[in-house]
Every structure is written in structure tokens, then in C-alpha cells.
Amino acid sequence: MTDFKPIIKVLEEAYEIPHLQATRKISALLPYNYYETDKHFPVLYLQDGQNLFNPMSPFGDWAIDQSLAKLAEQGMSDIIVIAIDHGEDERISEYLPYYHPRYGEGKGNFYIQFIIEKLIPYINSNYRTLPDFQNTGIGGSSLGGLISLHAGLSNPGVFGKMMIFSPSLWIAKTIFNQTESFQPLQKSKIYLYSGGNESAEHLPNAQKLEAIFREKMVENHAIEFHFSVNEIGKHAEIYWKHEFPKAVKWLYF
User: Which positions are tagged coiled coil (predicted)?
Assistant: First the structure.
């Protein structure tokens, strides 16, 4: 499997985010054979980069490098993953899309602006990507799942794929209204996951979100939707680690 491991490139340890007056470490996981081919690849932008392929992460990690290697071994290597580190103490604020009485205004829209206006053009200019809507995805877990969902809903012409794991919908109930008014411009693929053993609100909120998407599909909106539930799943990286390859397969292959 070692031969199929993705090539990990650190774009910058302190990539400038003018929209937030901050810097972040951003990494690219390229297909193992990226430099041996002239192919172009779809891209998945993932939040919480610290927890994606670092076994020393305090809360554990998704081990996406291992999952990508296993997928590549099965002939599914055509994907580039961009991992964006979170802002540590600023994480809640930067992943919060709306005003919250406890956490304030939220900088989520500025964060999404950064991804769309600066990061995506940079990646498309420096790597062999398939830059169209159908081949551009965004995803994350918890608050990272919330901001990824908001990004997809509020930019229906940018992100054709959404990987939403255990989204923290409790902190931003406006997201339900936003989902109801979502008008995909083209076929959008949405993969939603929730554990049954997270907080009391997590699974019911995810089921409420599912119901809205299902209704939109009945109304013939251009949505392809998959809802995955692990009844014993807790709000933890180990469960998102197991869900990641399933989601990648469904969304991209």
C-alpha cells in the first residue's frame, strides 16, 4: 500500500488569508502518480487540516492519507485533497456562518470568500485540476461540516459536491431555512453523515436536514443525496475516519 500513498505537499506553513487578516497552514494531498501523468483531477477542500492525517493530533485523526492509499490501490486515485488548518482559538468564529448570541457575528462568510476568491484560483493555477462545478467539492466535520454546508448552499455554482460529517447544526439553526431556499444550478451531490451516539441534538438535526433535502428531490431539484448513520457513532475523529472513504467513493467514483 505504501506505493499508493498520496504525495503530501505543504503549500505554505503560513498561507496568507487577507479576508481574515490571518495565516494558515495549507497542504495538498496529490495522487501517488501525480508526477507520472498529465491527467487533471477533481479537488476536495477539507476543513480542520490538523486532524486529517496527523496521528499525533490530540483528538486523533481521520488518517485520510491511509484511506486515499487504499482507494488508489483499488483503482480510485483520481482526486486531489486540499487540507486547510483551522484557526485554533479562532476556529469557532471562523467556522460560524451567522450571528450567535454567545459567539458573536461569526467570520464564516469571510472564510468562504477566501476559499473561493483566493485559494481555489491558486490551486487551479498551480496544480492540474478539473476546475468545473462537478469536480469541486468541500467538506468537514462538526463546525467544519457546518461551514462546508453553508459554503455549498450559498455558492450553488461553485461546489458541486459536499461531504458533511456530524455538522454542528445546533449553533446555527438558520441553516435549515437556508437549505429550504437552496436552488442548485446544476446537479449537486451531497453526502451527509451522523452518529447516533453524539449529542442529543446531532442525529435529530441531521434527520431534519435530510428531510429538507429529500423534499427538494421530490420537487425535482438537481440534488443527489446520501444519508449515512452509524447508530453507535460518537462525535469523534475515529468515526469520521471510517466514513471518509465511503463518502469519497460515493461523491467522486
Answer: none
**What count of residues does the chain have?**
253
In the chain the domains, ranked by start, together with CATH numbers, are 2-252 (3.40.50.1820)
> Could you read off the pLDDT of 154-188 as tens digits, one per residue?
999 999 999 999 999 999 899 999 999 999 988 99
End-to-end CA distance of the chain: 20
Confidence at 2, pLDDT banded by 50, 70, 90: low
For 94-114, what is the mean pLDDT?
92
On whether the CB atoms of residues 152 and 178 are closer than 8 A, the answer is no
Nearest one of 100, 113, 96 to 20, comparing CA atoms: 113
The SS3 of residue 202 is: helix
Buried b (16+ CB within 10 A) or exposed e, 35-71: eeeeeebbbbbbbbbbbbbbeeeeebbbbbbbbbbeb
Q: What sign does the dihedral 234-236-237-238 (CA atoms) show?
A: negative
* Per-residue DSSP letter, 91: H
Q: Is 175 left (phi over 0), alpha (psi -120 to 50) or beta?
A: alpha
User: 26: part of which helix (H) or strand (E)?
Assistant: strand 22-30
Q: How far apart are CA 79 and CA 37, in angstroms?
A: 13
Whole-angstrom CA distances from 199 to 6, 142, 232 are: 34, 11, 12
